[in-house]
Amino acid sequence: MCMIDLKLDANWDLELSAAGDISKTDSIVQAVRIRLLWFFKEWRLGPGHGVPYFEEILVKNPNEAKARHLIREIVMSVERVTNVLGVGIAVDKKTRQATIAVSFATDEDTYKEEVKVKWHSTD
Description:
By secondary structure, this protein is an alpha+beta fold.
């Protein structure tokens, strides 16, 4: 079964063709990236979905093993992901940003993805 989504550009806007058409994608990397940037309780139609950044990861003295396990479970919940090979979490308290790096496998290939999560506007 193939997962279809709307293709997003580098700025997280819908990617449009020159004619103004919306593109589709079955990108597993885009699906993982979206899951990692989705905060727990952020979506009112699915408040149980998302990463519990404020509850478990971006807290004082987080349980690092538990945080890595949570990220692993979220990536594994993406359709077609068969294994998570590595999870890295780096929190920069000065910039109030976390970097989440994952490597994961599907039946076809292995991928690496890194996202930056800001938990407070630094602008």
